[in-house]
Amino acid sequence: MAAAVAEASTSKAYDELTGKLRELDALNGISGLLGWDELVMMPEGAVGSRGAQKSALAGVLYDKRTDKQLGGLLQQLKAAAGELDPVQAAVVRDASRSYTRETAVPKELAQRIAKLETDAYVAWVAARKESNFSKFAPFLQQWVDVNKQKAAAIDPAAPAYDVLLDDYEKGMTSARLDEIFAEVRKGLVPLLAELREKGSPPDDAWLAGSYSLDTQAALCREVALALGFDTNNGRLDVSVHPFTGGSHPTDVRMTTRFKEGDLTEGLTGAIHETGHALYEQGRNLGKEWEGLPVNSALSMGIHESQSLFWERMVGLSQPFAEWLLPLVSKHFPEFPKRSAADFYAAENVIKSPSLIRVEADEVTYPLHIILRYEIERGLIDGTIKVEDVPTIWNQKMKDYLGTAPEDDAKGCLQDVHWSAGLFGYFPTYSLGAMYACQIYEHAKQQLPELEQQVAAGNFTPLREWLNEHIHRKGSLHPSGDALMTAVTGNALQPQVFLAYLRSKYSKLYKLS
Amino acid sequence: MAAAVAEASTSKAYDELTGKLRELDALNGISGLLGWDELVMMPEGAVGSRGAQKSALAGVLYDKRTDKQLGGLLQQLKAAAGELDPVQAAVVRDASRSYTRETAVPKELAQRIAKLETDAYVAWVAARKESNFSKFAPFLQQWVDVNKQKAAAIDPAAPAYDVLLDDYEKGMTSARLDEIFAEVRKGLVPLLAELREKGSPPDDAWLAGSYSLDTQAALCREVALALGFDTNNGRLDVSVHPFTGGSHPTDVRMTTRFKEGDLTEGLTGAIHETGHALYEQGRNLGKEWEGLPVNSALSMGIHESQSLFWERMVGLSQPFAEWLLPLVSKHFPEFPKRSAADFYAAENVIKSPSLIRVEADEVTYPLHIILRYEIERGLIDGTIKVEDVPTIWNQKMKDYLGTAPEDDAKGCLQDVHWSAGLFGYFPTYSLGAMYACQIYEHAKQQLPELEQQVAAGNFTPLREWLNEHIHRKGSLHPSGDALMTAVTGNALQPQVFLAYLRSKYSKLYKLS
């Protein structure tokens, strides 16, 4: 009898909780729409009024996220954890985590952070323009200080960097990252040196040309639709920076961008965003999941794994080149008559020297990330001083990538992230690449016809496999490693990624 | 000393009030953006998730609009009315009015109204499809009942119809409407009969043709920009139903629609929406006004006066035809070579028989409105029974317009308004037409070169005059009549409208 009463009360509390969480989800969706509209549709004159709208909505969201009743329900449900099924348990786990993080930060600190977001960005823009790190340094120091305070407020027992990392890659720790990145660095630095010293770069000069923007947009639209982007539940527009946003899995809005002189960049960008969009559109819309935290993207790393899966593992593979080449020729009849092998090789040339992260290829990119990770971790744990960042940056560039920037604008001032106080964000890019690789290698075993299907433009079996094992699982698992274990049988294994790179590029660069 | 303390406390209360009102304005702006997006951009699959978003935002808005602290501040400021300047007084007046209306309706009644909005619409669609009024009658009866209850909750001392009317045309009463509409009917019924019996309709057959939709869109875009639509503070898109929405005076979004077989409809529609948009974009963005109720549109009638001002008073005038004709020929080189006088005459042909309100011209339109006003007023004050609506409708059609519909689908079921419970909305269409006419006649006196300027495509002096006297005044005046008095020296005078129609159509129809 007492147990039945307890269960009834738990079930009532869970219903109340989901009501509140679904309201929050709807308001978050509105916030997503405002963001998309601002970048794609909003007239310039509305910058000020949109700021007031975003601020009003942020206030509403803050009040609802830190609502004491919500806290009470979570308290009650955590105490009754034994009565919850795995989906309910994931809902309570993630809602509690968010509630703790939202309520832990004192108002005064939140206000300092908000102010710093504006001030530090302005300072970074000016410092980069003059390539003068000292102008940005005081703001970077403030970001280090407030981030340490924020981390201490949330969880004084954990390493500060781990607490920050948890915002972007939940369940990941710096100890685990150290292990992963040390192994990647150990494999990648010699591979890169070998490719540069002994390899013969494929010919990509023939890809140069002038490609009409409208034709590129039509080609990329056809590619996105072929991969499975669903325009009944989304939109495809052109914007200054390509991104995927929207308000809900039934309203996913991806954008693309094209340059006349570069066919590959527009194509890989469109395929990348399609990967993000398929993850969003593939979410579970069943009654138990819809609008709840369990149905959110698991992490930034997992989101990035889906974009990089399609961009790199599929889109930059030879089977894909076989399917893509006739399509390119259909849209650009004057496109050179070369083989799919030539097209594949040309798309995969390693950029050298690799100074700028956003222009890097899949071999050099992880080294850019490892360098940033080591520096930002050192800043937070106190082993690196702000003033030493440029020297350390340049030394690591030489050690890992064999080249150093001529100035800080092309060096430690190149990325916006630190100016926005984002510490723990960079690692997710490379975690995404490694997750993607391990998932792809496993998918090849599960779908023995995969490469033939890709070459024939039949992406449905692969998309459905991803949908079943990853998209629909949302945040059911507590970490990227846990999801990887559920999908592939193993936590993230950097050696899978290293083996893939070595094998692919040894062939492409004709290493003996 | 006591007075100074009182003033300080009033000024503090006013600041608190405006903080709350500006937050509400920002959230209302978001609501406007959601509405625009739904009609212009949203993918079909997102209908359900958008519903949840709108409902969550509506809940937030309701809580903030009925917030007890807001009520307390308004109470305090009404008591200190003597210390407020005219702008502040208008803010407190309109905010109090909204607060009273929002808080008066009991929750149970609000829920019945929300349910009826869905049920009655579904019933109306089905009834109209079958042309079977009896299927809609029970829902119309429920709307009459709940609207009377709503009116009694808001102000039991005032006639129920006046309380409802106040939602759309504040400061207007049924006594005043009786007076206005009786005069219009008395003048218009014989004028229409005379034009039909003795007039020679101008030739408009030569306007028939096939006009490419893209070219119409380009032409109308050029017209909207020439009239002064500002794309730095707005957007112009194509949608299924033309409308003007957006989120703020700096973010005004108008849409147009075109039919291949009808050049005039697309043009007048685009000019109509431009008029609405200019009113919105022209609002006062000074510190004292911005984001406050004093800066809202005064009423639906005044909003409609601005669209009809440009559509009819300017857009369907002979000087405008002189400017427009070469522009039409530029976009459509095969357009017949006729005079501006012929073009003007062809655009102004009276539709006959006039059965459908939305297809009516400026002579017959007011009679459609008067008929609806008389019926809906009778329903609310109990002098007309729901079951008698079709008979009364058809009789009034014969009496006022000389024709009766063959069935209810083309008769009393033609409009969506009553299915949505909108009683008091119809009159604003014709009030708008009359306001527009009186403003135009006055503007001609104030701007002696007006017609030459219009013929030359110089719309700036007129737009600036409207901006100064109407757009920037927002809701400073308590009613349409008060604004008309401030602008033209007189409250609304239906005889000005009647004289305009008689003079214009006597010439067009060659009455002796």
From TrEMBL, chains A, B:
Family matches, as InterPro entries: Peptidase_M32_Taq (IPR001333)
GO process annotations (BP): proteolysis
Alphabetical list of SUPFAM superfamilies matching this protein: Metalloproteases ('zincins'), catalytic domain
GO molecular function: metallocarboxypeptidase activity
PROSITE patterns registered for this protein in UniProt: PEPTIDASE_M32
List of catalytic residues: E273
Protein name: Carboxypeptidase Taq
Originating species: Tetradesmus obliquus (Green alga)
